[in-house]
Design brief:
It is a single chain. Helices cover about 40% and strands about 20% of the residues. By secondary structure, it is α/β, with parallel strands linked by helices.
């Protein structure tokens, strides 16, 4: 129960004026609880949100202990009214926090909480969509009828923003027909030449293994078709250079289908990081692992197998999107398969400005696929670095903001096509979200890593 001694001790801790012990008899009638055990953790822990709970208890203790506050309202002294008003004002953040802990933005605007004020954090409802809505359909033709092609077909099944999967081509006509029927696609071709010769195709999506990207993208470009080429863009930097040179010479748009680059959530991460809410960004970590060690595209060198071109490319792009590409030193470790390809790698990047990125990718295990950008005041946590679905912002180990993927997002593949549509409408030869120079730089970075590991492909 609350006693006068309790109040005196609390008043001393709270730096209150001395309180009259005469009120202890009336307090005997209060519920048989003691608030002191609750006060101590808040008194000695000055981190939010505990600071606001403490101010809330401050008000309660003051009201219970001040005899003048029990007078009828007209007889309150002016000083009592002022103290009560200030106490109530200071308790507002605590009441907001207790009512809705997941919405800390209300705390930032409180004028008495200068030590908890933040820079302007971007609002969750302002995640940009990088595509205009058009009246006419943009028709996509898919080269390849595998798993990743199926994901693209699903993304465009409802014809979002005027984009549709119009045609699919496979080396087997039966396979192409089955794929088209399954995904509601109008045209099915048994050769890639037929698809790129179709005048109704506005954009070609190359969804074949890495080893075939150069040949299939070259075929599309030579027929004047704008091209969206799956990551990794090519087998190596040499092929990438030749492909981009062909596109420039032909005056044809081409870009790499590294979907992370085009997602609204990826750009929201950068916006939050640059807002200053986590202070100066200094360390980045990113992991992306799946159990896919037995898949052909992973274990076969002739298909440009290995974790690096399939998964590691996402971790590298994640680091480059937020920390740039001015890498001073690279240290790595790798586990190789019996076929000579990389199955798991750890890569540490040291930047010229003092930043550091620690990356991990592999085909041997499951993991959280998490990215963290750490700064001097807090950190940003990202669920799924290749397809960000949730962003959480922390300060002093307390979550202060959350962003979720757009409600209209289908599976993320649609944003690649939206960006191609925007670039084509603007007459661009490359996307500013994934410039050709950046594609080449990533390919050279991966070539250097493979050279250190002794991983080679037939086309090297």
């Amino acid at each position: 129960m609350i006693t006068s001694n309790d109040i005196l001790i609390a008043a001393k801790l709270l730096n209150f004026p001395k309180i009259r012990p005469s009120i202890s008899k009336k307090m005997q009638k209060l519920p048989q609880i003691s608030i002191l055990p609750l006060l101590f953790p808040f008194i000695f822990d000055k981190k939010p949100p505990f600071r606001h709970l403490f101010s809330f208890l401050f008000l309660i203790s003051f009201c219970l202990s001040h005899p003048r506050l029990r007078r009828p309202f007209p007889f309150l002294l002016l000083q009592d009214a002022v103290v009560l008003a200030l106490s109530l004002f200071k308790a507002i953040p605590s009441l907001c926090y207790l009512a809705c802990p997941s919405r800390p933005f209300s705390l930032q605007k409180h004028p008495l909480l200068c030590d908890f004020s933040q820079p302007n954090i971007p609002k969750p409802d302002k995640i940009p969509i990088f595509a205009p809505k058009t009246k006419s359909l943009m028709r996509l033709g898919i080269i390849g009828a595998g798993g990743i092609a199926r994901k693209m077909a699903y993304a465009l099944a409802s014809k979002p923003q005027g984009c549709e999967c119009y045609a699919v081509a496979s080396r087997s006509l039966d396979k192409a027909v089955a794929f088209a029927k399954e995904n509601g696609i109008a045209k099915a071709y048994g050769s890639y030449e037929e698809l790129v010769s179709d005048p109704a195709v506005d954009l070609v999506y190359v969804a074949t293994p890495h080893s075939h990207h150069f040949a299939h993208a070259s075929l599309a470009i030579s027929h004047g078709k704008p091209c969206l080429v799956e990551k990794a863009f090519a087998a190596n930097a040499r092929e990438a250079e030749q492909l981009l040179a062909l596109a420039k010479e032909s005056g044809v748009f081409v870009t790499e289908a590294i979907w992370t680059r085009y997602m609204p959530m990826s750009h929201k991460i950068k916006e939050v990081m640059e807002s200053g809410v986590i202070g100066e960004p200094r360390v980045l970590t990113a992991t992306l692992c799946y159990i896919i060690e037995h898949k052909e595209r992973i274990i076969r060198p002739e298909l440009c197998g290995g974790a690096l071109l399939d998964l590691g490319v996402y971790a590298l792009n994640f680091a480059r999107m937020y920390f740039g590409n001015d890498v001073l030193r690279t240290v790595s470790n790798v586990h190789l398969s019996d076929t000579g390809v990389d199955l798991h790698e750890c890569i540490s990047l040291s930047y010229r400005d003092g930043k550091m990125a620690n990356l991990q990718a592999g085909a041997l295990c499951q993991n959280d696929r998490q990215g963290i950008i750490s700064g001097t005041k807090g950190y940003i946590r990202i669920d799924n670095i290749n397809c960000p679905e949730l962003i959480e912002v922390y300060q002093d180990n307390c979550k202060i903001a959350t962003y979720e993927k757009p409600a209209e997002m289908i599976n993320g593949y649609e944003y690649e096509v939206f960006e191609c549509e925007r670039c084509l409408a603007a007459g661009l030869m490359e996307s500013p979200l994934m410039p050709h120079a950046e594609t080449l730089s990533v390919m050279r970075q991966m070539d250097q890593l493979r050279k250190e590991w002794g991983v080679t492909f037939p086309m090297d």
